[in-house]
Amino acid sequence: MAIGERIKLARKKNFMSMEDLSARVGVSKMAISKYEKNQDVPGSAVLIRLARALDVSIEYLLRPQRESIQLKAFRKHASLKVKEEEAILAQAQDWLERYLDVDELVVLDKEKTVLPTYEIDSIEQIEACSLDLRQKWNLGEDAIENMIELLEDKNIRVGLIDGVNDFDACTFWFDDEPVMVTKSNIPGDRQRFNLAHELGHLVLKVQEGLDEEKCAHRFAASFLIPAATIKQELGEHRSSIDPNELYLLKHKYGISMQALVYRTKDLGIISEAAALRIFKRFAIEGWRKEEPGKAVASERPQKMHQMIYRGLAEDIISPSRAKELLGEPINLF
Q: Alpha-carbon torsion 308, 313, 317, 323, what sign?
């Protein structure tokens, strides 16, 4: 990736047009266009202004070439604009490149990620698929304490990016290995569901005629709280469920109250009419947008940070390089 692609990537990451960037740097739009097409190279003074305008280091603009990552699954709202999607892709590219740099600097012995594949031709088969994966990963049927930690333990890279309001999560492939990216600064239950949803996209081979998003959605719910587990908590059949029950289960299993209602409906614990009554109450109370009570704590990836601090301790990485790779100050405390 030459300096032109770097400039373009950083511009998109910051939701900036060529006009925006040219105004901040003090050069023409034509000059920005030439830089991005590698038809011209900015001088040192312009390079410094570009770095400041794009809120990146000069080292970032001069960083060695990396292959662009390829998008596999993208969980988003229909209202997501092209410019916003480009920004998300650029943010994910920037994060992954830093991660790959860390991988090369701090070499660890690790197994290649091998995920099972489940061919399904009906949505009901997903229950058995998620349970089988839980068994393969020795999870039993209890709550998953930390979803990000679980994925990282399975050598799946996980990153957090700012994203946009209408972005949830996405999955990329690099060197035939899956990489998950999800939005930062969101409640933990939403974050965990997003990651479980992306895991569903990775392991399910959905036959024609089935909605892939609905299948991944069902997988996420069943992976976070298996059918036998939720039936043990609530019973086989109920006429209704109190919000306080949903709240307690939300914090026990890290899955939203609304997702739990859908889960109980899908499993036949409550009827569609009962689920509708619960959702009507949520709408009246204003809980559809923000659920009541304390939010589930969000999770943070640890593996990349641990590798950077290891490199710092062993003098493989300098403090300034560590700060650049982290994308934040190196003082963890």
A: positive
| Contacts with 170 (C-beta within 8 Å, 6 or more apart), sequence order | 71, 72, 73, 74, 75, 76, 88, 92, 180, 181, 182, 198
pLDDT given at position 76 = 53
219 within 8 A of 126, measured Cβ to Cβ = yes
Q: Which candidate, 245, 252, 247, places its Cα nearest to that of 192?
A: 252
Counting every residue, how long is the chain?
A: 333
* pLDDT tens digits along 258-268: 999 999 999 99
Distance CA 258, CA 83 (A): 31
- Give ∠ CA 62-65-68 in degrees, rounded to 5: 125
Q: Give 157's pLDDT tier (boundaries 50, 70, 90).
A: very high
pLDDT at 70: 56
In this structure, what token pair is assigned to residue 141? Answer: 């049927």
Q: How far from the centroid of its chain's Cα atoms is residue 128's Cα?
A: 25
Helices 212-224 and 188-203, interaxial angle, to 10°? 120
